[in-house]
Amino acid sequence: MEEASQTFAHDIRPLVRRLGKPPADWQRADLVRVCEEDGIRVLNLHYPALDGKLKELRVPVNSTAYLQRILAAGERVDGSSLFPGVFEPGQSDLYVIPVYRWAFLNPWAPDELDIVCRFAGKDGQPCPVTYDNLLFAAAEGLKSKTGLELSALAELEFYLILHRKDDRFTGLPQKNYHQSAPYLHSRPLADEILRVLSSVTGCLKYCHSEVGYIDRLESEDPELDGKRVEQYEVEFDTMPIAELGCWLAVGRWLIRMIADHYSASVTFLPKLDEGMAGSGMHLHMALTRDGVNVMRGGAAADGGLSSEALRLIGGLLNHAPVLTAFGNTVAASYLRLVPGQEAPVNVCWGFSDRASLIRVPLSFDVDVRMDQLMNPGETGDVPQRLARPTVELRSPDGSAFTYLLLAGMVMAIEDGLLDPQAEVLARELMNDGRGPDRASRLQRAKSLPTSAVGAARELRNQRAFFEKRGFPPQLIDIVIAKLDDEDDDDLSARLRSLPPSERLKRARRIMHKDLHKH
Fold this sequence. Notes:
- The model has no long low-confidence stretch (mean pLDDT 93).
- 38% of the residues lie in helices and 19% in strands.
- It is α+β, with helices and mostly antiparallel strands.
- It has 2 domains: 2-127, Glutamine synthetase, N-terminal domain (Ubiquitin-like (UB roll)); 139-366 and 389-512, Glutamine synthetase/guanido kinase, catalytic domain (Creatine Kinase, Chain A, domain 2), CATH 3.30.590.
């Protein structure tokens, strides 16, 4: 036990250091021991609701017996309030069951332990119509049918909303990418985001400033009007896709909490102003077999991608228009998905074009020792598995029904892996950004929907595909109704018909209306 504890002595997560073993090995007795020995007084149970936000139930640690009971069987919650339209009030009781590996010490209260839960029905089995269990079932289905597991990482972009204190070191619009202080006014806030998300999740790769900067935002919303806004990105490291659903929800909650502590605000809205960078939620994916990445090893003509990788790409391309129904859910989403903004419009993929729907980024798969090239005196062994090839889906944004989007992506990828024609489709829609036939390839490619209402139409037409694979019909109905309520089918034409000042005012009203809805 002492040797195991030493192995985790330098882990970034305080609870991992405290227990001396990885979260996958945590038992109920471990958490009870921490509560008893460290004076934990409150257990915070967290779980996602229909709006995508984490909810909480604060449970006092009255006694060891009571704590054992809560950790073993969870508590009852009202499903009709958490998932309105999914459960009828008369049949809405759910259990929230703690997932021990998702526990963490509260970053701000030393006597509180937080833990993320999953939902169970009255029979004690995973409730099939809640977000978490839909995603887990989809991931398990892919593995059972293909022998492959899907891992993913997320790039989550957002704007920090700051009170303007003075005019020193004013930034430049669209010039804030990887900016540093003093031209970065939210650096202390961003630093706490980095430290807290890293210590809670253990899977944060980095945090950096993004392109967007607006010195004085104009808005009818007083929370936005006159504020300085700076764009950031946090990137989570690769993990099983069902785990990503949990940590994305936790990450968004923590970012909001930290902003509030600094008397600032934050939004994950896809667009804040015309001509300014939108915020996406790019998702990188990798397939593994028995723990080994299988994305590379194909022919040079395919960029070295394996057959499995091409089929993954083909499955996503085939279902890309309908995935916007889960990943781009507000009218502002479609003001971001426009040409010339490094946001995708056409259903194609490539290695270099950031406007492609799917991009194959650098993978660290090189034949040279880059450390020795830059540091000729280096003599140490190179770390194992530096290469980590992925493919990146660039259309989703912060308005996404995250769990539904991830589940839908798993189903689309499974469809591609089981269909040899998906590989053919991927080759047909490859766009490397060069060559005389680039224009003709783009003409053959489908386009993403141009409105939330258009995404709803795609979902109506393809709902049988998702329902056959486990999507509850009532969730499909809710998503379609939500998209239709945006009433944006001809929004671009309506905006173009207005005088410039009125058009900008109307566009901002649309972009800002969902400030904290997701």
